[in-house]
Amino acid sequence: MQLEIRKATIGSKSGWAIWDVVSDRAHARWLWKTKKAALAEAETILEGMREDDRQVALEIAKRDAERTQKAASRTARLERRAAIRLDQSRQLDLF
Q1: Which of 4, 46, 70, 82 is found 20 to 30 A from 88 (Cα to Cα)?
Q2: Paired strand residues for 5
Q3: Which distant-in-sequence residues (6+ apart) come within 8 Å of 7 by Cβ?
Q4: 34-43: long-range contacts at Cβ-Cβ below 8 A with a sequence spacing of 24 or more?
Q5: Is the distance from CB of 12 to CB of 31 less than 8 angstroms?
Q6: What is the spatial distance between Cα 89 and Cα 81, in angstroms, rounded to a whole number?
């Protein structure tokens, strides 16, 4: 998401709005009296989004690790079964 600060008018009031450049619309439905206040709010919004992105990335990594662990466990189990079958086959060949 890309945010920028724009001078805007809502009804009869004018001020600074936080504008979402990608979706080409205002991010919030209110105006700030100063550009500095709007910038501070935009920074807060972006920090929150970064935290959300970080949480999503952690969840994805956790899921991937669980899948990898399950796959490794499944592979080890199949290899053990194959080894047991091979051993049993060799024992039968001895008789």
Answers
A1: 70
A2: 18
A3: 14, 15, 16, 17
A4: 35/5, 38/5, 39/5, 42/3, 42/5, 42/18
A5: no
A6: 12
Does the reported pTM lie above 0.85?
Answer: no
Structural domain count, the chain: 1
In sequence order, the 6+-apart residues with CB closer than 8 A to the CB of 41 are: 18, 28, 32
| Closest residue by Cα to residue 33 from 5, 14, 6, 9 | 14
**Binned average pLDDT, 10 residues per bin, the chain of 95 residues:** 79 84 74 85 85 87 92 95 91 74
| Token pair of 94 as six digits | 């001895």
Domain that holds residue 53: 3-94
- Residues 20, 4: Cα–Cα separation, whole Å: 7
3 neighbors 48 (Cβ within 8 angstroms) = no
